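Lab meeting, action items carried over

1. Structure of the two-component assembly. Owner: GW. Status: complete.
Input record:
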Amino acid sequence: MSKRRISVFSMMVAAGMTLALIGSAGAADKAIKIATQSPLSGDQSLTGVDIKRGAEMALEQLAGPLTALGFKVTLAPFDDQANPDNGVANAKQIVSDPAILGIVGHYNSGVQIPSSEVYHTSGLVNVSPANTNPKVTTRGYMEVNRIVGRDDVQGVVGADFAAAKGVKTAFVVHDKSAYGQGIAEFFKKRAEENKIKLLGFEGTEEKANFDALLSPVIAGNPDMVYFGGMAAQAALMFKQARQKGYEGTFMSDDGFDSADAAKIGDKTLLAGGGTYYSTVAGPASVYPGTAKFITDFTAKYKAAPQPFAAQSYDSMAIVLKAVENAAVANKNEVPTRAAVTKAVRDLKAFKGITGTYTFNAIGDPEKSLYFIQQVKSADPAAWSNNPIVKTLEIAPPK
Amino acid sequence: MKRFLRYINVYELVRPIGQLLKFSVGSAAVMSAIVVALALVLDQTAVGVHLMDKLNVTVFNYTLSNLPQVVIDGLTIGFVYAAIALGYTMVYGVLQFINFAHSEIFAVGAFVGVELLIFLQSAGVLAGASLFMAYAYLLLAILLGMLAAGGLAVAVERIAYRPLRGASRLVPLISAIGVSFLLQDVIRLVEGLTTGQFNRIMPTFGNFDDRIIFGKLVLGASKLTLGISIKSIIVIVVAVLMLVGLNYLVNATRVGKAIRAVAQDMPTASLMGINVNRIISLTFLVGGLLGGAAGVLYALKFTRIDPFIGFFPGLKAFTAAVLGGIGNMTGALLGGIILGLLETFAGSYMGVFTSGAAGSEYKDIFAFSILILVLIFRPQGLMGKNVGQKA
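Predicted assembly:
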């Protein structure tokens, strides 16, 4: 008897919940959500949180036209913890929410690549502010777009810079992630073409003790140590290398572009041959259109924007504009995901704060900027003042 | 003064230092001999040709000139492992179970110490501190880390292990694994709520990052600087002091006698008037103190810590304890030193010896294969039988 009562009760609860779900979906007819995915906790949260903030600010400032059409646009931030598993789990949650029409995100290519498989199967558009691995777009998914450059160019830019600096020997280390290993391999390939002798090519997931890894580095004493990966690991390895007496030059990639690098590496980054990094997103101040963005951002969050915050602002702006265009085409009703996806690619010469964007057939911007920067101060607060040594504008490879 | 000295068992103070010296020099010599012999053989093969081509140096010369640095690095991490391993081995000696939460006790010690230093830094005390004060602050951080970790270890024993004492040996083991996960997430929660960042970075202060340079070695076309960083010296000195202190406590004091008695036979010890519960708490306290100090030293040496930092050092220290013979203090020392050296030797030379085919990322293969071999051929561990007493 009691068993049956429980089962009746649980059925009622289930029915009630279903009704509530239907009810809420019905009430939020013209609600639109745009999701973000970036590491909001963990090692890379400094940059990840600012990716969310950039998108958040864009939403606040640029949702006007959509509000005028009677839509209520909100942000749905997700924390991927820079971990592919979390990214994919979030992606599944994101695509199952019908109100979400677009996603700005991912800081790490290694997270974006598996997560975008989920977006692809659900036809949800993704505009990436930071992912540089070629595979992000070369899979040819209609849904995936990015507004930054690619590692098969960035690695080459880094290796060319090294050669121009007179580097004869180099030791390359990477973090075994899709991003880190990818760019390290592009660097390696180009370095060899530039007649730079590679003393070693090593992958490591080590986060604390680089003693053993560094022995051959110190013994070989290369002109340059290159790290393909993220700031926390790279800066720590550089620091330990200096403490073991390495005097040469360090170089890393756009994953290194975070104030955390200065916090960890401190003065060791300035000693010896110094530290350089290539990036696809210079500090916000180098773009002509970002003055207002920097002022607003600093006023709102009481801190200067980290790299990629301005790119995230633009990514969100692109998604909002595409949603607006698709909604207008749909007689001011909520557009389908497919329509938004198409509207993103249809945007021509979209004027953002970091540049003017037109996506090519696979979702790469038609031209992207690449920078080489030098670490000039051990103070984390001064990170965004690191000078740019070289700027290049290059079209993505075919 | 003389009267006072009579109460100090000088032998027990000197003996462990001798032991440490013997173990360090012995295992370093054995491993050096092996790599040098290997290098001589490899010089005749394609590996030698490859290295000659790359660095313009023979494998033998490369090995020899890297050796001092590798030994120093290996000993530094080895002493940290030994300090953690003692926590495992003491608890095993007394209760015959593996306290898997010990790795998180280590992590808590590291976090408390580093948080104190971060606090001091944000208060502006660290930046301009004189050398003396810098060392005082570091000592304070180590002590606070020790206290927190020691207190936590006692609390964990009281809450999670004591109620299970009569149960089968698997039960407290599972409880320990549970506590380990719980503590990891508690650290994450507390750090996440208070600082919003659960990866912390040890502030830079004092002269700990400086290096004492012994000289330069010429290696083919390049020069190799030989030296040791001050923080490695600090890690070694503090670890040795703690190990000597622990040895004295266990082997030369009344409390130590009680610990040994409880380890040998708990019911009989309690019949002899020893408060068994108090001795067990004390064992956990001592293990926790060592673990906490090791945590702060680890953070000092490697700069960055996160809530999961305890996992690998904990696993390796546990391996070291088993390698040396779990339950045996001398064994834990030996195991820690061997493991630290082995890991560093493998990591440093494997890449070169295999012409880059298997880099330093595979270093743990050696540590754990040695463990398997020891467990197959000497299940009681290296020192398991030689010493009659446990604790």
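2. GW to write a short summary for the group page. Key points so far: The longest strand of chain A covers residues 31-38. The interface with chain B takes residues 41-43, 45, 176, 197, 199-209, 211-213, 215-216, 218-221, 232, 236, 239-240, 243-245, 260, 263-264, 266-268 of chain A (CB under 8 Å).
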